[in-house]
Amino acid sequence: MSKNWTRRQVLSSTLAAAAGIAAGRPAWAAAKTLNVLGHRVHQNSLTTGVAGDLTKPWRDSNDTDIAWTTFDTDPLQDRLFREASLDSTDFGVGFLVNSRATPTVAPLLQPLDAYRARTPIEDFGDIAPGLVSAMTINGSLMAVPFRTATIGLFYNEALLEERGIKAPPATLEELVDQAKQLTFRSQAGTPVVGMVVASDLATFPVSFARAYGGDFIGPNLKLVPDPAAMEKAFATLADLYKAGALPRTFATTSNDDQVTWLQQGRAAFTVLPFARYAQLNRQDQSKYPGRIKAVEFPISAALKGKMPMASCVEFWAMCIPRNARDKDLAWSFIQTMSGKAITLGAARNGNGPARTSTYSDPSFAAAQPMAAVEAKALGGARVPLPAFPNAARAQAMFLEEMQLAVLGRKSPKEAVVAIVERITPLMTA
Amino acid sequence: MRPKRVVVGAGKAVAVALVLLWSLVPIAFIVVSSFKPSADIFAVPPRITFSPTMQHFADLWTQWRGFFTGLLNSAIVTAGATLVAVVASTMAGYAYSRFRGGAMAGTAVFLVAVRLLPPIVITLPLFPMVNSLRLNDTHLVLILLYSTFFVSLGTLLMRTFIDQIPRELDEAALVDGGSRLTILRRVIMPLSSQGMLAVAVFVIVFAWNEFLFAFIFTSTRAKTAPLFIAEMMGSLDAFDWGVLFAASTVQLLPIMLFVLLTQRHLVAGLTGGAIKG
Amino acid sequence: MAATTPRTLASTVASHRSRNGRFRIPVKALPFLAPVHALVLGVIVIPALYVVWLSLTTSTFGKAPSFVGLANYVHSLGDPYFWRAMRNTVVIVLIVVHVELIAGLAMALLFASGLPARRWLLAAVLAPYAVSEVSAAVIWRFLFDADVGPVTVALNALGLPSLEWSVVPAHGLLIIALLSMWLHLPFTFIILYAARLAIPTHLYEAAKMDATSSLQTFRYITLPLLMPAILVAMLFRYIFAFRLFSEVWLMTQGGPARATEVLAVYLYLDAFRFSAFGAAAATGWLMVIVSLILGVGYLWGLRRQMMGDAA
Q1: Residues 6+ apart with CB under 8 A from A315
Q2: What pLDDT score does B235 carry?
Q3: What is the mean pLDDT of the segment spanning B154-173?
Q4: What's the rounded Cα separation, in Å, for the pair A9 and A288?
Q5: Where are the beta strands (DSSP E) in chain C?
Q6: Structure confidence by residue, pLDDT tens digits, B181-230
Q7: Is residue A272 within 8 Å of A151, Cβ to Cβ?
Q8: Looking at CA atoms only, how far is residue A31 from chain B in angstroms?
Q9: Of A305, A402, B238, C11, which is most buried with the most CB atoms under 10 A?
Q10: Residue C296 CB coordination number (10 Å)
Q11: Cα–Cα dist C93/C187, whole Å
């Protein structure tokens, strides 16, 4: 029993340390603290990178510390609404993703028009109007767009060369063709599949549907406006799967797998936000640094030139919970971080800016090789599906039927019929 | 005799080898990957030879400094929860061992039955409750929650162990003028150390790796290590397998050290126990 | 009958007394029971009452809860996905609990029979339980990758087919069960091992002197004395397995096409993705009812044990 003291000693010293930490604030801490609830990328783009800590001037002039609480996307949104449902919350600023900005949650957020009138945001019209309107619910602005992520088609130049393909696909049909050709064993001895995609994201099947001129849910909340296009999209995907150009593990592939597979040369194509360019080509992570490029997701040959490809874009916006304690401080933060100079700085730190002018700024384009391509894609881009109360359920059903169609358990026609049947009641609820 | 012993010895060796293989291969992969250059971690075909690097640990220190505070928070919460759970379980286990009857048995079954409700649903009402008590983002709330989740198991385990301690010892101490509390402290606790250790191990491992409640009830001050590890996985722009495995390795070390240290205690308890002869 | 510790006259009288006052809790016991029951009451029972009410409402962010009676229960019970999740859960639980029991028992006996470098072996055996589930799942996904994973390659080299866990739901359930066992076998093992160590050595010495065979020793000494611990281990393993979540979420996300979804995932989706709290609460209570029905045998055994003499 003589060893008991070790455990008790450890116990008591840690408890003492805990007490020490819990008590007292260091003398150099600022008078106020702003608690921000966001994703790590938001924190990173405002505080670390080429342009440095962009929050410092604001922090100094307001004598405020910023405490960042960061989570992954789904947990982050859940936590934001949970906090906003309390009597009062410690959090002043929250980051909202487009898919969750529905009229149902509007009561949880502080309308920002009055704050805008008092302390306007610099050149508000410069912020992409489509994003602003998505964040305007029942006529009031509920959040200020901060970050966009436009989806593009990434390809491995080196693998394309190995198969003698000179240029990336310009139409969807070419993509399908090339993907099939690129299912082979590479010179490095790695089995390659043409295309890798995450099975739990709507961006990928929606991109295919839009390439054929259709959509999952149109901006006017019309469900599957063009069933034939959706059937064609499913049929194409099922065809790719049968040919082995999509991985056998397609139904359980995750977002992270997409990046890893491309870095390792296990796949030739994937569909990811343009911002991933830097990581895909990282010297220390990728087997093909500098050889992974991106283009706009190609539209089908029949529609090329007739209409722009509506690439998928997701975006984040800054909001204030209605039960926040210091809303003036929160607005001061939002208003400052939305300014032109800081937006450019954040963009140079790796953020996808919400301002149109940033894309044409030379210093941004210098840091982001994909800037021009992304700007062009952003021009015609749309969110994968609009925000409505049952959007999450609708998306889950859509993905489930899509997986069944691709795996060959259902025919594309049956899947599309099932989608319409199951999701129609959700649209009106 | 000798051939049989050889066979038994060989059989045991094979069994041990299988057990080690089963337990350690994935972990070896994690630990080894934390020293592999990023590009080699998921290389296909897998790389067995590589040039080891400490870069991931360095990156962990520079890019994820908060992770180490998270480890400290995890340690505080784990220690607190273990203390509360072990003490409470031993007390209740003693009561269930020494006092019998239908009502007692009923409360014990109730103690176990409440565990059937998935913890995930009680977060729904607990969140506003905890916030109105201003306990959000404190170590105390996690300590209370974690220990609650193990008192049912802990109580049953301690009862099983205390049952092995003959009541004569209780009677002897009572005759000597001790209260039941004294019996507990001086007689029961030392003799049921294996049980207390087993309960402690469960609570420690659970609390050290717990994610759901830490995520719901903490923000910055009490954020524990598993939250950081989960964040490393789901980043929107850049993530680093090497850093993730380095963090997992670092997070695994204290537990392994604890097990190695308390090993002696477990064995000493067995050979030193006066009752077991 | 299991071996009982000798009792003095005094303690026989004392227990007789408490058996006569059968349906009351002895006052002396109350302070000892207080901490445990206070915790359980405050953290589980009281919120659980709220959850009962919640299950009778439709509730989500931004809206006040509105009473809908048993609609949530009716909806879940009529949902084929709920029943599939139930089936998957039961299958996994049955596999996991029983296989782990056998394996844990075997390992406990192996360790108890004397091993070199026991400290390191014990640490190695407990390591999977200590590792974070997130990292473990990442590794397992790679090891078992149907094309390039080292385990798949090894299986194929031995002439066995690959585990197509992304495509065939049965294989998906199997790999989830395997991962769960890998993570939790140390739990079962340590309960059984500690209990085995607590069995007095003089019983085994006596058996050896009587030239009892190992099988008889196991049947008449080891097994009966381990019964209480076995019951506890199985009961709690069963409870934990029933609400199995991360293994599924991290490996297959319930796929392909929700074919490997389990009840905890079904609940999680309602609570945290669709923000349908009433539905989630109802599913939670349905899970309680189902696990009560399936586990009533264990709970009854527990009660009998609690009422009777030691072991």
Answers
A1: A97, A98, A131, A134, A145, A146, A147, A148, A149, A352, A354, A383
A2: 61
A3: 86
A4: 52
A5: 57-60, 63-67
A6: 877 787 888 888 878 888 888 899 899 999 889 989 998 899 999 999 88
A7: yes
A8: 18
A9: A402
A10: 11
A11: 15
Under 8 Å between Cβ of A361 and A353: no
Q: How far apart are CA C260 and CA C249, in angstroms?
A: 10
pLDDT of residue B266: 53
Which residues, in sequence order, are bridge partners of residue B269?
Answer: none
Per-residue model confidence as pLDDT tens digits over B70-79: 999 999 999 9
In angstroms, the first-to-last Cα distance of chain C is 9
For residue A194, give the H/E element and its range. strand A191-196
Q: Rg of the Cα trace of chain C? A: 24
Strands A184-185 and A191-196: what pairing?
antiparallel
- Distance between CA atoms of residues A44 and A66, nearest Å: 13
Which pair of tokens denotes residue B257? Answer: 């050290």
CA atoms within 13 A on the CB side of A297: 28
CA C181 to chain centroid, in Å, comes to 10
Q: How far apart are CA A216 and CA A209, in angstroms?
A: 7
A165 φ/ψ sector (left φ>0, alpha ψ -120 to 50, else beta): beta
Quick one: DSSP state of residue B8? H
Residues of B in contact with C22 (CB under 8 A): 101-103
Residues in chain C, total: 311
Task: Round to whole Å and give the CA distance between C145 and C139.
Answer: 10
- Structural domains of chain B, ranges and CATH numbers in brackets: 34-273 (1.10.3720.10)
Could you write out the DSSP letters of every residue in C75-111? Answer: HHHT-HHHHHHHHHHHHHHHHHHHHHHHHHHHHHHHH
Does the beta carbon of C264 lie under 8 angstroms from any beta carbon of chain B? yes
Q: How far is CA B87 from CA A19, B98, B151, B155, C29, in A?
A: 21, 17, 9, 10, 15
Q: How far is CA C208 from CA A28, B15, C115, C222, in A?
A: 72, 24, 20, 13
Say if residue C256 is preceded by a cis peptide, omega within 30 of 0.
Answer: yes
- Give chain A's mean pLDDT: 89
Q: Which of B31, B146, B156 to mutate to test the interface with C (most CBs of C within 10 A)?
A: B156
- Burial (CB count <10 Å: 0-12, 13-18, 19+), residue A62: middle
H or E element in which residue A33 lies: strand A32-38
Q: Which chain A residues are Cβ-neighbours of C251 within 8 angstroms?
A: 252
C-alpha to C-alpha distance for A118 and A335, rounded to whole angstroms: 11
ipTM for the whole complex: 0.85
Whether a cis peptide bond, with omega within 30° of 0, leads into A145 is no
Give the three-state DSSP class for B268: helix
End-to-end CA distance of chain B: 28
Q: Residue A154 — φ and ψ, nearest 5°? A: -95, 145
In order of start, what are the domains of chain C with their CATH numbers?
A: 39-310 (1.10.3720.10)
| Ramachandran bin of B49, using left for φ above 0, alpha for ψ from -120 to 50, beta for the remaining angles | beta
How many Å is the maximal CA-CA distance in chain B?
73
A429 confidence band (pLDDT: 50, 70, 90): low
Number of residues that make up chain A? 429
Using CA atoms, how far apart are residues B9 and B6, in angstroms rounded to an integer?
5
In contact, C188 and C100? CB cutoff 8 Å = yes
CB contact under 8 A, A87 and B132: yes
Q: What is the pLDDT of residues B43-78, one digit of tens each?
A: 877 777 888 999 999 999 998 889 999 999 999 999
Give every CB contact of residue C235 below 8 A, 6+ residues apart in sequence: B112, B156, C295, C298, C299, C302
Residues 122-151 of C with CB under 8 A from B: 122-136, 138-140, 142-143, 148, 150
